[in-house]
Amino acid sequence: MLLMQSLSQRRAGKVVSSSIRYADVKPVNASGMGSMPRWLQTTVKNPLVSFETPNTGDLGIQAGVYGALMVLNYVNGASASSIGPYAGADVPGLILATSFGASLYFITRKNIKLGKATVITIGGLVAGAAVGSVVENWLQVDIVPFLGIYSPAVLVSEFILFSQFLVSLYLR
């Protein structure tokens, strides 16, 4: 009796659920990701790294920290020509280590795990080094000084500091 009642309701078009009406037709993927493997679909839906807009407080603090490191790096590079290129300690290396630690701190402050923050920071370091090396090869500051910078390491370090600033500010 229940089956006959259900059949007569379906014939009359009185269906409770809209998914029952066309039960024999397979649903079409509206996103167009039907041909992609499942692991790629989950990666596209849940990206490993995302962008975010920073609030003004974080922007001010990080701009101050990285700005101070950039100025210190520039002053060290501009004053190295009078002393000699290898006379003192490795100040650009110390500045880069400080910026690496600051970037880790600022990224983990956004409630991101240390492993992911380390990968993001290393990615920013590599990207800055790549861009800085390309610019340094184009300018060749050891032959023709640019804005008082005589050392290629200082110019590349400036680009690394700037990329660390952007990575710690915008990536999540």
From TrEMBL:
Keywords: Membrane, Transmembrane, Transmembrane helix. The keyword Chaperone does not apply. One of its GO terms (cellular component) is chloroplast membrane. Pfam families: CPP1-like. InterPro entries: CPP1-like. The chain crosses the membrane at residues 117-135, 147-171. This is Cell adhesion molecule-related/down-regulated by oncogenes like. It comes from Actinidia chinensis var. chinensis.
